[in-house]
């Protein structure tokens, strides 16, 4: 599950000092999206074997086991991304041991226990697509689209339907056309539209693909649209990812 943007990442800055001074600090609880990534920046390069071990840094669940994560190490920076979404409503701890050491065997200045709860709602990937879409609209003097979380649930259901039924089309075998689907989910529209995509790894890739396609670009730059819903689904199928944008203006 790759996510490549900086603005959405929670940033920890940690220094190093001698072992006698090392201790842990408990930080206030946070509520985060179910796909929350974490970035930790140290003041020096750390022992990579320790960075790869849950014994020194990891996402601990309430039962004491660790959530599966991917780790990306670059000099003095570690990025941690969940391999699977956190369970909504469950509590987790980002744990950084005070015994974590630098390449020169210094321990970090303070360990960290960051408690967080995963919450349902739009994911950081989906939020980023909204931001990038509005950046494109701003270039043409258009008003930004307002994120509608209920519409995002419909868009996510469309992406999930494509993944589960192994198709890629605006016409769903389950819900019919995008316009029928919106109506059936309670969206009585004056203007409506849909963009779909599959296979793109990042929000930047998918918005760029849409902007380089005439029909999709037209949807993004339609002045009559006021609200937007975004649905992103990871898949083990042929396309790997499915994306849906739903555009909407109420009657």
TrEMBL record:
Ranges of residues in domain SCP: 131-247
Signal peptide span: 1-22
Keyword Signal (UniProt): yes
Domain of life: Bacteria
Transmembrane segments: none
Pfam families: CAP
SUPFAM superfamilies referenced in this protein's UniProt entry, alphabetically: PR-1-like
Keywords: Signal
Gene3D superfamilies reported for this sequence: CAP
Classification via PANTHER family: SCP DOMAIN-CONTAINING PROTEIN
Protein name listed in UniProt: Uncharacterized protein, YkwD family
Organism (species): Salimicrobium flavidum
